């Protein structure tokens, strides 16, 4: 689909309804902007993109900032549909957006348009290209665990245990999002590791993993952490803390009740670990991951902990003070070069 043409058709009636004033499509958009709209003396300069991938949004917002000039119109990024994680990311960056499904957050000194609740009118039955499926994400894990290393694709394949053809496919997709950079030897690394993590977080689904909920008799989250770690350590198989308890081990920030551990398989005898299966009131999640990559670059603290990038991803799906723990982890440990 030609998204610029679709935007030129869809946006004027949407904006007329919100602004309650006629909207005109300018015949020539200034400074290489995709689309310029005018209403009541106000100009909206629109950069049109075909998806809400965070990396795509970042490039669009940067292009608007460079192209529109100081005080020249309101810069707006337009996409077919803006998903919840993309909206949250955009709000944190403070840029305006509109989607062709009828949602928007457009702000200026004397303008505020906020529209939500419209479903995606451009959803399709096909699966979108995704460089962050559980298995494909092994590539991003390596890039984030070693952010300053320049990699040959064959080295990534050896490092993460993927066929070279699979790595090539993932690298092509990451390249397409503008997430990679290359040196003179054609080795690659993450262009902006923080943006790579944001892009991965947008597509990450904790629900891809198999989670079982238990209660362990303990007086505190820390006591439960020590107990379950010791008991898992007495058994065969890899395990690694993630979520709230891992964030606490990394930063000593924010008390917690819920302990989450990745394990290779669910225990056949959870009672032997002191765990009682429950539907609610749990203080332990045991999680069999969709892909073993979650164990990559784990480090040993009081127990084995998943890499901070993995912990960051998982915290978005945790209760209690997870939002604060996310910020602390990002501020203290995930501090990469720009």
Which tags fit this structure?
16 strands; 3 domains; seven-stranded mixed β-sheet; 338 residues; Beta Polymerase, domain 2; 11 helices; Arc Repressor Mutant, subunit A; alpha+beta; Trna Endonuclease, Chain: A, domain 1; five-stranded mixed β-sheet; 20% strand; single chain
Any overview of this molecule?
With 338 residues, this protein is of the alpha+beta class. The protein folds into 3 domains: 3-115, Trna Endonuclease, Chain: A, domain 1; 137-203, Arc Repressor Mutant, subunit A; 206-332, Beta Polymerase, domain 2 (2-Layer Sandwich). Helix content is 36%, strand content 20%. It is built from 11 helices and 16 strands. It has helices spanning 3-19, 54-67, 84-93, 137-145, 153-160, 164-176, 193-203, 221-233, 243-251, 308-315, 322-332; strands spanning 24-25, 35-39, 42-48, 74-79, 96-99, 104-108, 111-115, 180-182, 188-190, 210-216, 239-242, 259-263, 275-277, 284-288, 299-300, 304-305. A 7-stranded mixed β-sheet has the order 1-2-3-4-5-6-7. A 5-stranded mixed β-sheet has the order 11-12-14-10-13. Strands 8-9 form a two-stranded antiparallel ribbon. A hairpin with a 2-residue loop joins β2 (35-39) and β3. The relative contact order is 0.10.
């Amino acid at each position: 689909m030609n998204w610029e043409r679709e935007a030129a058709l869809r946006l004027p009636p949407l904006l007329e309804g919100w602004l309650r004033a006629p909207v005109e499509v300018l015949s020539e958009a200034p400074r290489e902007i995709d689309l310029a709209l005018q209403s009541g003396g106000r100009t909206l300069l629109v950069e049109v993109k075909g998806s809400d991938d965070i990396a795509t949004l970042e490039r669009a917002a940067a292009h608007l900032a460079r192209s529109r000039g100081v005080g020249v119109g309101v810069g707006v990024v337009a996409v077919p549909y803006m998903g919840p994680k993309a909206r949250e990311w955009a709000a944190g960056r403070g840029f305006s957006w509109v989607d062709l499904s009828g949602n928007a957050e457009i702000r200026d000194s004397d303008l505020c348009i906020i529209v939500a609740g419209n479903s995606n009118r451009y959803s399709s039955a096909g699966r979108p290209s995704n460089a962050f499926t559980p298995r494909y994400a092994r590539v991003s894990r390596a890039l984030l665990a070693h952010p300053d290393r320049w990699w040959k694709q064959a080295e990534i394949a050896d490092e993460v245990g993927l066929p070279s053809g699979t790595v090539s496919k993932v690298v092509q997709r990451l390249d397409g999002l503008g997430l990679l950079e290359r040196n003179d030897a054609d080795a690659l690394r993450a262009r902006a590791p923080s943006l790579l993590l944001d892009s991965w977080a947008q597509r990450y689904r904790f629900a891809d993993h198999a989670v079982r909920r238990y209660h362990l008799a303990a007086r505190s989250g820390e006591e439960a952490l020590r107990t379950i770690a010791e008991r898992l350590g007495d058994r065969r198989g890899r395990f690694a803390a993630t979520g709230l308890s891992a964030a606490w081990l990394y930063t000593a920030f924010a008390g917690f009740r819920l302990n989450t551990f990745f394990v290779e398989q669910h225990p056949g005898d959870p009672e032997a670990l002191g765990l009682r299966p429950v539907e609610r009131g749990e203080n332990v999640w045991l999680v069999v991951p969709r892909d073993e990559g979650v164990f990559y670059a784990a480090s040993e603290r009081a127990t084995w902990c998943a890499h901070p990038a993995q912990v960051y991803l998982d915290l978005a799906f945790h209760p209690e003070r997870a939002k604060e723990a996310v910020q602390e982890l990002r501020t203290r440990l995930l501090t990469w070069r720009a």
